[in-house]
Design goal:
heterodimer, A: alpha+beta, 434 Repressor (Amino-terminal Domain), 4 domains, 6-stranded mixed beta sheet, about 55% helix, flat, B: alpha/beta, Rossmann fold, 5-stranded parallel beta sheet, 5 helices, 5 strands, about 45% helix, globular
Chain lengths: ~425, ~120
């Protein structure tokens, strides 16, 4: 086995690899070329600040020059070799490999570490499936409801001599248990979604923004009327925003909010609603874009709307990815997976600048109808010759009456109970 | 012929109703009990030929109840069919170790439960 080179030899090797002349490196480290020459020939001991300066000039970790990192790297390569001994790696030459091919060695070590990390994640998730009390209780609820439905439906399917009273009772039981099953499965999927989001370090920028906006109730009085704060000031004060990416998203959102608030002031909006106007009419009268009016309506509190309603709002980009979520009770919005393709939001995306309106009902729920208004607009940030950017918005409002015709939609395929849906893109957990 | 008695210890009303219906039609008298804490006393009072025991009950686990039943002379030999939503090997092993006559995971079929009950009190 080749002996691990000394620090000076390593410095020389890295310098030559980088095509640097001795004088050039010496100048960068503020030492004489002759002193560097002595170092490179292992005739002067080196450490401390000078080693760090040389490492910086060579753009390498000081540990690789001193040999400490090399030893560590060799140990990791050796550990990786142990996990795949069937491919018969030359176990005694790990140190040699680390010295001669540090880049390849780092790759092997990194892949080894990543494998270890993934194994730990798998172990943790496996453990959670077995021991997590919430998951266990949720699964128990799902299976209990399934058992009750299966038993009752088998009785109804097989028995032709069931008394009408029992028949009615089992029909009612199936209905009750299917409601329970829907709730249990939805709770389970939402829990799993939340957990998987946290596994990816809990600070996904869009997730972080969504949580913050929810905490602020999507309303920023400091940007209304005579604005008392700037978007930057609000973002700066928001401790809940954990990353720069989340703060950037929040800033963009608030900048749009401020523009919208100036375009359609709160008092105009409220008085328009009192006059019975709806989004399209408000847009027409104020000259604002329909998307702007949708966003403005979504900031209203229940005491600011005539019927005490609160509006929900969903936004998406041209890929269909949801970029904004403000849910309302009874109309759940997916947190991670893509939404139901039958949402008018996506119809609007297909025909920009066209007002789309529909009455919706949520699959699996008997109660609740929603008025959905959707609109998409296409912009050309670099002029008409450049690429276009399309953004769609869907405003949601609960409606009290129960219109006979309502389009059935879901939240997302994963938790949608509709068995034979021609828009389905993935199996449902109810299948 | 003397009526055979099953005591169903389960807290989910719609499952109780379905099992009661299936077994009653097969000639069984079905008594029910929904609370874990007083389940052992209920078994002593009713003296059933067979017990169907859910694992997850309010106030006390089905495993603890089974343990008590097997430790008492008058209930030591009564067949117990355990019902659970968890079908893992260790749950099954625990039930067997505590003396369950049979272990059935939810969701089960009506035929399955009927045949098992007939078999256990054959």
């Amino acid at each position: 086995m080749e002996k691990t080179p000394l620090t000076g030899s390593r410095i020389r090797s890295y310098r030559v690899d980088r095509g640097m002349r001795q004088a050039e490196l010496a100048r960068a480290c503020e030492i004489s070329p002759s002193y560097l020459n002595l170092i490179e020939h292992n005739r002067r001991r080196i450490g401390g600040g000078l080693l760090v300066r040389i490492a910086r000039a060579l753009d390498v970790d000081p540990g690789y020059l001193s040999g400490v990192a090399e030893v560590r790297l060799a140990a990791e390569i050796d550990a990786a070799a142990e996990t795949h001994s069937e491919v018969a790696p030359e176990r005694g030459q790990a140190e040699d490999l680390a010295a001669r091919f540090p880049g390849w060695s780092r790759l092997i070590a990194r892949q080894y570490r990543e494998n270890r990390r993934l194994e730990e994640v798998i172990e943790r998730l496996g453990d959670r499936l077995t021991h997590d009390p919430y998951l266990s209780a949720s699964m128990h609820n799902v299976l209990t409801s399934v058992t009750a439905i299966r038993s009752a439906s088998a009785i109804l399917a097989q028995g032709d001599d069931i008394e009408p009273e029992w028949e009615a009772r089992f029909h009612r039981n199936i209905y009750e248990d299917s409601q329970k099953l829907t709730e249990a499965a939805e709770a389970l999927v939402s829990y799993l979604d939340r957990e998987s989001g946290q596994d990816s370090d809990g600070s996904l920028p869009q997730e972080n923004l969504d949580r913050w906006l929810e905490g602020m109730h999507w309303r920023f009085d400091a940007l209304e009327g005579n604005a008392q704060a700037t978007p930057a000031e609000i973002v700066e004060a928001a401790e809940e925003l954990k990353t720069n990416a989340a703060r950037d998203l929040a800033h963009a959102y608030l900048a749009q909010y401020a523009k919208d608030a100036a375009r359609v002031p709160l008092d105009v909006l409220i008085s328009s609603l009192e006059d019975g106007e709806r989004a399209a009419e408000i847009a027409h009268r104020t000259g604002a874009n329909l998307s702007t009016v949708f966003r403005r309506l979504a900031v209203l509190r229940s005491d600011e709307t005539p019927c005490g309603d609160v509006y929900g709002l969903v936004g998406c980009d041209a890929s269909g990815t949801l970029t904004f979520r403000k849910p309302i009770p009874g109309f759940d919005l997916p947190r991670f997976s893509a939404a139901c393709p039958f949402w008018p939001l996506y119809r609007a995306l297909q025909v920009p600048n066209t007002f789309i309106e529909d009455t919706l009902k949520m699959a699996g729920r008997d109660e609740g109808r929603f008025q959905a208004e959707a609109f998409a607009e296409t912009k050309y940030p670099q002029g008409f010759g450049g690429p276009s950017v399309t953004e769609a918005w869907m405003l949601l409002r609960p409606i009290m009456d129960n219109p006979p015709k309502a389009l059935q939609v879901g939240t997302s395929c994963r938790i949608c109970p509709v068995p034979e849906c021609f828009g389905r893109r993935e199996p449902s957990v109810f299948a | 012929m003397e009526e055979r008695k099953v005591l169903l210890i389960e807290d989910e009303p719609n499952i109780i109703e379905a099992i009661r219906f299936i077994l009653s039609r097969d000639g069984w008298r079905v008594d029910t009990h929904s609370d874990g804490k007083s389940a052992v006393e209920a078994v002593r009072e009713r003296a059933p030929d067979l017990i169907i025991l859910d694992v997850m009950l309010p106030n006390r686990s089905g495993y603890d109840i089974l343990n008590d039943l097997r430790g008492a002379e008058e209930t030591h030999d009564v067949p117990v069919l355990m019902l659970t939503a968890r079908g893992q090997t260790k749950d099954r092993e625990l039930a067997e170790r505590l003396g369950a006559s049979r272990f059935m995971t939810k969701p089960f079929s009506n035929r399955e439960i009927l045949e098992t009950v007939r078999e256990l009190v054959g």
